Every structure is written in C-alpha cells, then in structure tokens.
C-alpha cells in the first residue's frame, strides 16, 4: 500500500486466517497474512494455534514439514519441540532446552472460522469476535468463496456506507420505503437499510438488512424476513502491503422445503458474489482521497473514517496536512 494509503496495511483487530473445516486435528499449514509468515496447526487437544513461522534456532519454517506433537509443534530441521504456548520444551540430545520460543498469536475460533488478533504494539484483544448462528445445526453449511483483491480493508468496509454507488455499480433501485441508518458503537458499525435488488427480477426484490462490522476484519450481513433468516459473513484479512484476502460466506436457516432452501441459498450466493465482483475493478484502481468532496446524497464517509481511526496505533496514521 506504500504511497496509496496514509496508514499501514494491517490495522489492529481480529482477522480470519482459515475455515475451521479446513484444519483437522494434527494438520499443519504454512500461511502468510498481515505481512508475516505464520504456521497454523490444530493440536491433539483440538485447539487451533498460530505461531510465527520461523524457528528461533536456525530459521526453518515450522509450517513446511513441521509436525504436531501433543498440543504443540516440532520443527522439521533439528527437532526442537514447542509447546501449546509457543515455549520451547525439548531439544533432542540436550538436557535442558534454552529459554526461548516461537511467538504464539492470540487465536479465536468462532462462526466456523479461525481468527488471529493483530495489534501493531502487541496489546491484548480489546473486543471479542461476535458469535452468530448459536443454533448452528438448523443452518446450512457455509458456502464460501475466496478472493484476493488489491485494496485496503478500510476501503472495503467504507463501501457499506457508500450509498451513492449502489445504483451505479450494483444496479439497485431505491426501495419504495427508504431506510439507511448508520450507528457507530465501539468496534462495531451497524448499518440498517432496505435494499431493492434488481439483479433478481426486473421489479426488484426488497429486503431489510443489518450489516454489523466487528473491528476492521469482519462484516456480518443479516436478513431476517419471515420465513427467511440469512447470514452473509465476510472476513477480510490483509495479506501484505498490496493485497487483501476476502472470504464471502453464506448460510441460511433451513426451511421445511429442502429444494427451496437450496435454490434461495444458490440465488443469494450468486447475488452476493456478483455484487462483490462489481466493486473489484473500482477498488483495485481507485486512489484514497483524504479530503473527499462528498455531497448530501453520499453516506457518512467522514464519520466512518473517524470511527475507523481507533484501529490504528498512535503514530500509525500520518497527521493531516
Ligand atoms: S531450525 Fe528449527 S530446530 Fe533447528
Ligand atoms: Fe459495493
């Protein structure tokens, strides 16, 4: 993002690094997010863990050939064994291991995804990952699609309140009954709106949605319109200085009719992915205007940006000229 945005690529918050279903007990994966190389594994106790990738000994990547051992992991190079908290517990052939370890990240597994807490100054988590679908068995399994896009996470969620692009980019007509309310509450921004989606039918299909962000890395869009209960759950994680990985996940409460559940899921998934891809060329080629010339028909862009500043550490954001 060097030069493109006046703040760092990775704000402070919870960021998705994998789907729970993709990490079985004993699995080890090499992943790169937040500008770091990481190792992600599931210990024999069933807990997902994330450590800095490179061994403090001679620098091997723990995620490439490393093996789960108990609740921790063993390095593939000289067999140093790290415990659940990343601390070194065994060096083969040595009575007492030196006091060192691999840096363990704070991990939260919720809503079928694995999140890490990132903070530029290593402060502990200041909020929780909001839980959804407590009655998970009554919901369809996630349908998930992953994208890698050249855009900052701050620009991604600014899109939610950028109401004047809905008609031009997404071909949405204003609904018969207009509603667009934005609330900022701690690490969450809550947007309640009525949408008319013309992608489905010429006349438009009206829905009320509630979009709730949870820090800079998570967005949940809920539709509760009897008999429909649907959730689009989006995780957005900076990969490096240029790219962000976005996962669009969709689930709905099963209806009595399986065929109807399936066709509504498929249609929603299609609309969500279509709308997302409509934004991509704009995001990848836009610049960040620090002092945008907004008008009364735009959403509350300046308020949104002021709210977002809480996710940067002091000194992260360049002072305004
Ligand atoms: S590099 Fe990991 S044990 Fe030597
Ligand atoms: Fe959009």
Secondary-structure map:
Blueprint lengths: L12 E7 L8 E6 L2 E7 L5 E5 L14 E3 L2 E3 L6 E2 L5 E3 L16 E4 L2 E6 L24 E7 L3 H9 L4 H5 L1 E2 L6 E6 L2 E10 L7 E9 L4 E8 L2 E11 L5 E9 L5 H28 L15 H8 L13
The structure holds FE2/S2 (inorganic) cluster and fe (ii) ion.
In short:
With 321 residues, the chain is of the alpha+beta class.
Q: How would you sum up this structure, described in words?
A:
The chain folds into two domains: 13-118, Rieske Iron-sulfur Protein; 136-311, Naphthalene 1,2-dioxygenase Alpha Subunit, Chain A, domain 1 (Alpha-Beta Complex), CATH 3.90.380.10. 16% of the residues lie in helices and 34% in strands. It has four helices and 18 strands. A hairpin with a 5-residue loop joins strand 3 (36-42) and strand 4. The model has no long low-confidence stretch (mean pLDDT 94). The longest helix is centred in the C-terminal third of the chain and has 28 residues, at 258-285. It is globular, with a radius of gyration of 22 Å. The strands form four sheets. Strands 11, 12, 13, 14, 15, 16, 17 and 18 form an eight-stranded antiparallel sheet that branches. It has a four-stranded antiparallel sheet with strand order 5-6-7-8, with no helix packed on it. A three-stranded antiparallel sheet has the order 1-10-9, with no helix packed on it. It is α+β, with helices and mostly antiparallel strands and 321 residues long. The chain binds FE2/S2 (inorganic) cluster (FES) and fe (ii) ion (FE2). The site of fe (ii) ion has 5 residues, from helix 2.
């Amino acid at each position: 993002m060097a030069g493109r945005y006046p703040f760092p690529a990775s704000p402070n918050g919870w960021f998705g690094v994998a789907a729970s279903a993709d990490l079985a007990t004993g699995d080890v994966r090499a992943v790169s997010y937040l500008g770091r190389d990481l190792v992600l594994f599931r210990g024999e106790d069933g807990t997902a863990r994330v450590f800095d990738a490179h061994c403090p000994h001679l620098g091997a990547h723990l995620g490439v050939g490393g093996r789960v051992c108990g609740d921790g992991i063993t390095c593939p190079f000289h067999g140093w064994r790290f415990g659940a908290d990343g601390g070194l517990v065994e060096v083969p052939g040595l009575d007492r291991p030196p006091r060192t370890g691999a840096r363990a990240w704070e991990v939260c597994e919720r809503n079928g995804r694995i999140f890490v807490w990132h903070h530029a100054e290593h402060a502990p988590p200041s909020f929780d990952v909001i839980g959804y679908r407590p009655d998970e068995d009554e919901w369809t399994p996630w349908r998930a699609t992953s994208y890698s896009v050249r855009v900052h996470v701050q620009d991604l969620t600014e899109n939610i309140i950028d109401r004047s692009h809905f008609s031009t980019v997404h071909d949405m007509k204003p609904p018969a009954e207009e509603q667009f309310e934005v609330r900022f509450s701690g690490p969450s921004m809550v947007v309640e709106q009525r949408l008319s989606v013309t992608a489905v039918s010429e006349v438009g299909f009206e829905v009320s949605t509630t979009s709730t962000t949870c820090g800079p890395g998570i967005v949940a869009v809920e539709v509760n319109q009897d008999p429909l209960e649907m959730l689009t759950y989006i995780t957005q994680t900076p990969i490096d200085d240029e790219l962000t990985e976005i996962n669009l996940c969709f689930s709905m409460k099963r209806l009595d009719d399986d065929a109807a559940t399936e066709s509504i899921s498929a249609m929603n998934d299609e609309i969500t992915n279509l709308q997302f891809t409509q934004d991509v060329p704009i995001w990848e080629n836009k610049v960040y205007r620090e002092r945008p010339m907004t008008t009364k028909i735009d959403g509350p862009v300046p308020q949104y940006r002021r709210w977002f500043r809480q996710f940067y550490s002091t000194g992260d954001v360049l002072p305004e000229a």
